[in-house]
Write a structure and sequence with these properties.
67 residues; 4 helices; 0% strand; Lambda_DNA-bd_dom_sf; Cro/C1-type_HTH; Helix-turn-helix transcriptional regulator
Length: 67
């Protein structure tokens, strides 16, 4: 659970640094603001693909824990 929250916090930080809203990020990813909120807070159950798309949209890239 800590990893999920850490990823969400990183996405939130990068989104804010980019100066975009959750709504704008949602539009870029093709999802809802509610889903972006869930990703950023580590709640809900968004798909890994959606989390990766959100990360990529703000310039982050996810990697496997074994890397």
């Amino acid at each position: 659970m800590e990893d999920v929250q850490a990823i969400g916090a990183s996405i939130r930080r990068a989104r804010r640094e980019a100066g975009i809203t959750q709504g704008t990020l949602a539009d870029l990813v093709g999802t809802s603001s509610r889903t972006i909120h869930a990703i950023e807070t580590g709640t809900g159950n968004p798909s890994l693909g959606t989390v990766a798309a959100a990360a990529n949209a703000v310039g982050l890239h996810l990697r496997a824990a074994d890397d």
